[in-house]
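User: Some background: our group keeps a shared notebook of sequences we're curious about, and every so often someone picks one and asks for a predicted structure to add to the entry. Today it's my turn. The entry only has the sequence so far, pasted here. Could you supply the structure so I can complete it?
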Amino acid sequence: MEALTAVAIAGLTLHDMVKAVDPRATLTGVQLVAKSGGKRGDWTRDAPDAAAAGQRSEPAGSEPAGGAVLVVSTGAARGEREDTTGARIVAWLEDLGLPTPPAHVVADAEVASALRGALAARPAVLLTTGGTGPSPTDATPEATAALLDRALPGVAEAIRARGGTPTAALGRGVAGIADGTVVVNLPGSPGGVDDALAVLGALLPHLLQQVRGRADHAHGAHQSGTHRETAR
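Assistant: Of course. Here's the predicted structure to add to the notebook entry:
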C-alpha cells in the first residue's frame, strides 16, 4: 500500500504540472506489480503461481471451484518411492462432482510454496496428504496453518479419532478455510487417507455449502431426536 500511495502521489503531482498545458490529461494504470512477504508470500502479476501446483488460475473474484490434491513426500518427489495416496484422493473428489487435476507431488521442504501455488488457483477443496507427523521434516501443518483465515479444529480431531491405530494420535494435521477454499491435511498412509475420507464424506458437502453462504440453517435442527419448546 505504501508503494501504491507513493506512485499515486507522484502521478497526481505530474498531473498538476501538465494540466495547464493539457486539461484532458489522465492518470491511469496504477497497479501492484509485485509483492513479497505477508500471509500469501511472494506474488508477481501474471506469474504462473498456480502452475507450480499443476493448477489453472481462475479469474479474480471467481468462486472457488473443483478440487486440488497435494502429496507431500520427499521420497516420492525424488522418485525413490511410489505415491499410493494421491490418485485415490483425486478419484474420491471426482466422485463428489469436484473436477480435480492429477495430484501434485512435492518434497517436504517445498510444501509452503506448493500450498500457496495451489490456493492461487482457488479450488473449492484442497486436500494434502503426508508431512503431518512429528518427524523434524514434517512441516505440512505449520505451512497450512499460516495460510488459514479460519481453523476447523473439529475436522482435524475427527480424522484423528477415526484412525484405527494408536499411532493416529501422533498426527498433527490441521483443517480450515483459506480465502474460500476448504483445506484439510490428511495422513500420509493409505489407511489413514481412507479413514480421513470416510470422515470428510459426511462433512464436506454441507461444509462447502456453509463456506459459500448457502447452508440450510435448519440442518442442525434435525440432528437431535428431542424437540424442545419454550413458552413465555
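Suggested note for the entry: The beta strands are 34-35, 43-44, 67-72, 104-106, 125-129, 150-151, 175-178, 181-186. The mean pLDDT is 83.
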